[in-house]
């Protein structure tokens, strides 16, 4: 017998796999906030240790059920907010039971038979899903894609250089807890006068780097490392920016170089974007393009200190853009700064927007 969910008249059945995780929790917040509601049933699914918990969706208390093949019986659309290895195993099972899977992990992003979708850029791709799976991009790539996709449609992107400043929540709950612990260890100590001060303070507080999700201290520091090391000087987050940008924008030969940096910010990724186009583009034209995008907010008055920062935009759904300027010495090139909440648009919201489009 299929697990019970929230029954609301007619409509497709939506499952949320990973309902009790960091992104799953944000997903439920988004579901509770949406103005329209196309679902006839919502089913919350998580690991067996989380089964039995009660969560509220649209005013109804739902019981979380354990991940199993039977949990997908009768499900039309299944959103996966779980680690790569869990998606790799269970997304095909959900698809085999008849569900269209919208997966937020990295398990299928570069699979030729799985579309990688950002609704503002390539929503038409959701109909082309041979494996019954649609993939959600990495939060770093996604944070700039609404803005970059709009410029590409207008001026044709040819080259992209990106520096990211990534929040610790991109590394999960462990990343957030580590930053808070480090900040507590260094607070009020007047550190940073000499090399090794921060490391000594962390060691004195029992915070060994061998137990950290990061290879260097985050408190009072920045770390030019995000993801796993892939050789030849590159980390996985940097390669994701390159490969995913090419796939989403449909430019297989796009020239891309990225440097991804972890910074002591809890939530919201920031990116400095250097984008070159096939056609001439002015700052005024770019502002007009951004202003026409419903999911892009302009904060671009640097003379008066107006530009996006993580502290300004955390908790928001749009992409925030500022510091728009003509690149000196580079023709047909713009530099701009982008901020996006990596747990909302960078993960949960994009996944849910794809599910909503499927429901329509």
Question: Main traits of this protein?
Answer:
single chain, alpha/beta, 10 helices, disordered N terminus
Task: Describe it.
It is a single chain. A six-stranded parallel sheet has the order 5-2-1-6-7-8, sandwiched between helices. It has a six-stranded mixed sheet with strand order 12-9-13-16-15-14. The protein is of the alpha/beta class. The protein is built from ten helices and 16 strands. The chain has helices spanning 22-33, 84-96, 119-122, 139-155, 173-186, 197-204, 236-249, 283-291, 310-313, 344-359; strands at residues 13-17, 41-46, 54-57, 60-63, 65-66, 77-80, 100-103, 133-135, 157-166, 229-231, 234-235, 255-262, 269-277, 296-298, 319-326, 333-340. Helices cover 31% and strands 23% of the residues. The longest helix is centred in the middle third of the chain and has 17 residues, at 139-155. The protein is globular.
Give a short overview.
This protein has 360 residues and is of the alpha/beta class. It is built from ten helices and 16 strands.
């Amino acid at each position: 017998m299929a697990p019970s969910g929230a029954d609301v008249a007619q409509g497709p059945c939506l499952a949320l796999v990973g309902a009790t995780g960091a992104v799953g929790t944000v997903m439920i917040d988004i579901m509770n906030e949406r103005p329209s509601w196309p679902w006839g049933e919502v089913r919350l699914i998580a690991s067996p240790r989380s089964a039995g918990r009660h969560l509220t969706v649209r005013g109804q208390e739902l019981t979380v059920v354990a991940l199993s093949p039977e949990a997908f019986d009768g499900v039309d659309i299944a959103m996966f907010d779980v680690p790569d290895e869990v998606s790799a195993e269970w997304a095909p099972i959900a698809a085999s039971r008849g569900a269209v899977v919208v997966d937020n992990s990295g398990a299928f992003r570069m699979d030729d038979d799985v579309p990688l979708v950002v609704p503002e850029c390539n929503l038409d791709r959701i109909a082309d899903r041979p494996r019954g799976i649609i993939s959600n991009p990495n939060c770093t790539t996604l944070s700039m894609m609404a803005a970059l996709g709009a410029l590409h449609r207008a001026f044709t992107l040819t080259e992209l250089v990106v520096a990211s400043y990534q929040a610790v929540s991109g590394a999960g709950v462990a990343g957030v807890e580590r930053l808070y612990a480090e900040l507590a260890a260094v607070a009020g100590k007047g550190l940073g006068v000499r090399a090794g001060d921060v490391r000594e303070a962390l060691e004195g507080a029992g915070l060994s780097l061998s137990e950290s999700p990061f290879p260097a201290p985050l408190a009072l520091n920045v770390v030019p490392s995000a993801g796993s090391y892939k050789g030849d000087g590159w980390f996985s987050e940097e390669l994701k920016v390159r490969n995913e940008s090419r796939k989403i924008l449909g430019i297989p030969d796009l020239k891309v170089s990225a440097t991804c940096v972890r910074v002591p910010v809890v939530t919201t990724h920031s990116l400095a974007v250097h984008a070159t186009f096939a056609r001439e583009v002015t700052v005024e034209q770019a502002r007009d393009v951004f202003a026409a995008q419903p999911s892009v907010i302009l904060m671009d008055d640097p003379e008066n200190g107006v530009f996006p920062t993580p502290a300004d935009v955390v908790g928001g759904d749009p992409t925030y853009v500022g510091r728009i300027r003509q690149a000196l010495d580079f023709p047909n090139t713009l530099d701009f700064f982008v901020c996006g909440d990596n747990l909302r648009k960078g993960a949960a919201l994009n996944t849910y927007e794809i599910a909503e489009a499927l429901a329509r």
